[in-house]
Amino acid sequence: MSQDRNKPPKAEGRAIVADRVFDGRGWHRGAAVMIQGGRIAGLASRGEVPSDWQQSRVPAGVFVTAGFIDVQVNGGGGVLLNDRPTIDSMRAIARAHRRFGTTACLPTLITDTREQMRSAIAAARSLAGRDGVLGLHLEGPFISPQRPGVHRSDRIVQPGAGDLELLCELSGAGHSLVTLAPECVPPGFVMTLAAAGVRASIGHSEASAAVVAQAVAEGATGVTHLFNAMPPFSARAPGIVGTALSEPRLTAGIIVDGIHVDPVSVRAAFAAKGADRIALVTDAMPTVGAALDHFDLVGRTIKLIDGRLTTQEGTLAGAHLDMASAVRNAVGLAKVPLEDALRAASLTPAQFLGVENERGAIVPGARADLVALTDKLIVAATWIDGEIESYGVP
Questions:
Q1: Catalytic residues
Q2: 89, 246, 255, 362 — which has fewest CB within 10 A?
Q3: Cβ(224)–Cβ(72) under 8 Å?
Q4: Residue 331: its pLDDT value, please?
Q5: What pLDDT is recorded for position 391?
Q6: Which tens digit of pLDDT belongs to each residue from 14-27?
Q7: How far is CA 311 from the centre of its chain?
Q8: Residues 322-326: what's their mean pLDDT?
Q9: pLDDT at 394 over 80
Q10: Could you read off the pLDDT of 51-71 as tens digits, one per residue?
Q11: CA 113, CA 154: separation in Å to the nearest integer?
Q12: pLDDT score of 389
């Protein structure tokens, strides 16, 4: 009797029942997602759910899949990380994107001062792993002045004394990422980051295929917003794009908003690399989840017109995009199979960050972070640790 009293209470079981469940690799029809203690206990048929388990049935036409993971999100809900790189800002950004099916993300700081970088790294070290924040994405400042995009040219720099040590502090900030131009950092820079457990992604760069190959040999594993802020692919100068499409060790992020990348190019990228090496990203700005038509980005006014975010000069400045819309666009505009689009929004970024046993798939032991989508790929509900957060339908 005393032994029984000392046993921890059995976690209450609950099941989410749907006509279809996508587990990250394949479909299950008439299935129940079994949840205990905020974790996935397994998948079962409807008839296998224990009678004493709480059941939630999603409506006909709605399916359940793993929550989305966004590795490049600058802002949301009216908050821009560069404005205030704090714990509260990171939480607010993650919360703003939750209604669009994103259950985990990397808040992203674009090229800024060392002081802002230190603040963002400190916040990520304090918060990573909680409230949907997996870590921090530093996009810059060690990028090419020839490919700045909307980054401020006066803040693009080459690494100086102490900079590598500063970036290596991200090793204590969960699963973090640095976007850099490999031709603009010294030999061994990427190798040191990789050895510290900080992921390196190639972007805002004019690197040749040979330079990219060397970066991969040193441990680079990603390409930031494929096709954008890099030279185009050509027959005798494959560059970043050609190497990304042909190198299986690289996972390429891609912005599928119908503006940044032509749908045919999106389809070509999926065809070349497969959904296991393409990650949908939003590059979202604070207009997502907020009633804003403009905002300031490191001293420049950005306007939202017809779904496009630009400076006064017409330079694209991030995207007015959420992950559910990215999935819809991948399917509707680029004609990517639904299964591939879902995988690119969940399991692939999870694998890229090394959290595939925790997130990105409906497998035993993973966190019960889920999203329900209608047949039109509109978010019906989102679950965090098995707790539902409903939006709109139903």
A1: 283
A2: 246
A3: yes
A4: 98
A5: 62
A6: 999 999 999 999 99
A7: 24
A8: 98
A9: no
A10: 899 999 999 999 999 999 999
A11: 10
A12: 82
Whether residue 320 contacts residue 76, with contact meaning beta carbons closer than 8 Å, is answered with no
The yes-or-no verdict on residue 226 having pLDDT over 80 is: yes
* pLDDT higher than 90, residue 390: no
pLDDT tens column, 278-292: 999 999 999 999 999
Does the structure show a pLDDT above 80 at 293? Answer: yes
Neighbouring CB atoms inside 10 A of 349's CB total: 31
User: For residue 18, what are its two tokens?
Assistant: 């749907």
Amino acid code (one letter) for 75: G
Q: Measured at the alpha carbon of residue 379, what is the angle toward residues 227 and 174, in degrees to the nearest 5? A: 60
Give residues with Cβ within 8 angstroms of 88, minimum separation 6.
Answer: none
**3-state SS of the chain?**
CHHHHHCCCCCCEEEEEEEEEECCCCEEEEEEEEEECCEEEEEEEHHHCCCCCEEEECCCCCEEEECEEEEEECEECCEECCCCCCHHHHHHHHHHHHCCCEEEEEEEEECCCHHHHHHHHHHHHHHCCECCECCCEEECCCCCCCCCCCCCHHHCCCCCCCHHHHHHHHHHCCCCEEEECHHHCCCCHHHHHHHCCCEEEECCCCCCHHHHHHHHHHCCCEECCCCCCCCCCCCCCCHHHHHHHHCCCCEEEEECCCCCCCHHHHHHHHHHHCCCCEEEECCECCCCCCCCCEEEECCEEEEEECCEEECCCCCECCECCCHHHHHHHHHHCCCCCHHHHHHHHCHHHHHHHCCCCCCCCCCCCCECCEEEECCCCCEEEEEECCEEEECCCC
Mean pLDDT of 89-115: 97
Residues forming a β-bridge with 373: 63, 379
Give me the phi and psi of 18, to 5 degrees please.
-145, 155
pTM for the whole thing?
0.95
State how far the Cα of 257 lies from the Cα of 325, in Å rounded to an integer. Answer: 8
Residues 389, 382: Cα–Cα separation, whole Å: 5
